Amino acid sequence: MGKIIIDCDPGIDDSLALMLALSSPELEIAGITTVSGNVPADMGTGNARKVLRQMGRLDIPVYTGESVPLKCSYTDAMDTHGRDGLGESFLPEVQGEFPEGSALEFLEKTLEKEKISIIALGPMTNLAKLFLKRPELIGQVEELVSMGGNFRSHGNCSPVAEYNYWCDPDAAAVCYELFGEAGKKIEMIGLDVTRKIVLTPNILEYICRLDPENGDFIRKITGFYMDFHWEYEKIIGCVINDPLAVAYFIDRSMCRGFDSYTAVAADGICRGQTVVDSMDFWKKKPNSHILTETDSGKFMRFFLSRVLKKEDGSRWREEELSLLESL
Ligand code: BDR
Ligand code: CA
């Protein structure tokens, strides 16, 4: 399946996405880059390392990316993800020597030497900066799966906009535009599909029974997020957006959708809105594949069977997780 870079802003659901990617043998993670989004990029770097420590994979390099959006002022999402970005779990920082260099340097060097896929789980600031400077490197991107945007579903931080694209609308607009010009498509895993992925207290309890170690980590980071969802959305549980992008990258049957030309509104009341030309008014070549349908049960079986380990270190098989259907 090949090599990937994960560009993210951990972030609670980013951390679950990293856990899933790290537990997936199909993926070779060349590096993780962080960007200011849920939390400032340097805090995101520390959080990515906390996840790597939990998963025993501190060998994977993490590079800190852009601290502010291309043009807008920066708005974090610590109200959703906690003051530490990991649900106020305040887990100890990982100490040690880490590789030097910025996210942009790492992305540029890697794409210069090889074709690689990118899974983007935060605002697209790093990617936009890179491709504005080196548009020819888009040709080196095997696939770009981006968690962000929304088609028919409403926004999560304005009536019409999803947070990642709202946080840096100019960056998202640039990426969609440049990918179109390069004749490529961005796989858009937006709120239409991610909203269906809800980690409920019952599923969390099951997770903790199946794997007390990783379960305890997941419990520590998601409690705050569940409280936030109850307070603002009256949901029992929490929407975990980012892991669906990883699952879809590995298994295309996880979501279904259609090709379309998409533009991102950069400012005004529609800031960050993805304008998806599903009826082909503009007669433009598609620059996106918009995912609109998913099967949350299938995703949960996939997620649990990969991230959770039995006492002997082996994985749970999907057939062993039938209890999920009643949770
Ligand atoms: C996206 O915004 C962030 O808060 C989440 O980590 C996810 O990437 C959902 O809108
Ligand atoms: Ca994210």
Key terms for this structure?
nine-stranded mixed beta sheet, globular, alpha/beta, single chain, 12 helices, binds calcium ion, binds beta-D-ribofuranose, 17% strand, 327 residues
Question: How would you briefly describe this protein structure?
Answer:
The protein has helices at residues 12-22, 41-54, 78-81, 103-113, 125-133, 163-167, 169-181, 191-194, 201-210, 212-233, 242-250, 296-307, and strands spanning 3-8, 28-34, 62-64, 116-120, 141-147, 186-189, 198-199, 238-239, 255-264, 274-277, 288-294.
Describe what this molecule looks like in 3D.
The chain is of the alpha/beta class. Helices cover 38% and strands 17% of the residues. It is built from twelve helices and eleven strands. Helix 2 links the parallel strand 2 and strand 3. Helix 1 runs parallel beside helix 11, helix 4 packs across helix 5 and helix 5 packs across helix 7. The chain is globular and about 55 Å long. Calcium ion binds next to helix 1.
